[in-house]
Design a protein that fits this description.
about 270 residues; alpha/beta; Rossmann fold; 2 domains; seven-stranded parallel beta sheet; globular
Length: about 270
Amino acid sequence: MINVDLKDRIAIVTGGAQGLGQAICERLAREGCHVVVVDVNEQGAQATATEIAKATGRRVVGRKVDVTQEARVQALFDDTVKDFGRVDIVVANAAILIAGPIAEADAEKWRAVMNVNLFGYFLTTKHACRVMQKQGGGSIININSKSGKKGSAANSAYAASKFGGIGHTQSVALEMARHNVRCNAICPGNLLESPLWTHPEKGLFVQYLRAGKVPGAKNIEDVRQNYVNQVPMRRGCSYEDVCNAVVFLASDASAYITGIALSVTGGQEMN
């Protein structure tokens, strides 16, 4: 029998105030978890927590944390243990993306992507493992990307950070298996309806159009159609698609699974 019961488990989700992170927080709460919504946007984290708690009846709190600052990450885990008694699930979702041609790349922006996406993931897993090792188990899930398995033109910083994230996931999985701590990654396809893509100023449709990432594209709709055409199932990835994978990897249904990078791409990436 497949057991996906997450009732009363304690979950931490970084980058949880908006977009995919917010959807993951809500889904975990609906599955029965108590959730710590973590984000650099304190107001957003608290608003999301209040809304989800009201809708689900679960205990949900918002915390302002910059995942690149170790003292703040350490305090997050210490405070969660103090408030809830343990940490069962950690979803490392916090990430940024700054696209641009390599010959024109801004070095400090490139460094910033690595700092949030890879160093921030390291700090999150370090302190998750510190807690989970003592309590005898837990599930760590990195929200990675299909760009962690295949290079992405005019997007080298993001792809490099995500390739590194998969290597980190596998390394932590090997080290922590004897402590019953599992570490896996989810590699979504393109979330074409999300603000990450659709934001009129900072969205990927605009960034990719400006960066010339899609040859011949004259407008945003040309960029969108290019990405839809790459998917055998002919649609973008949805929040629900990713949340289904999170619930599976967080639950006892995946108790014998660790170190994987699960593609959720509609067939676009099959490795």
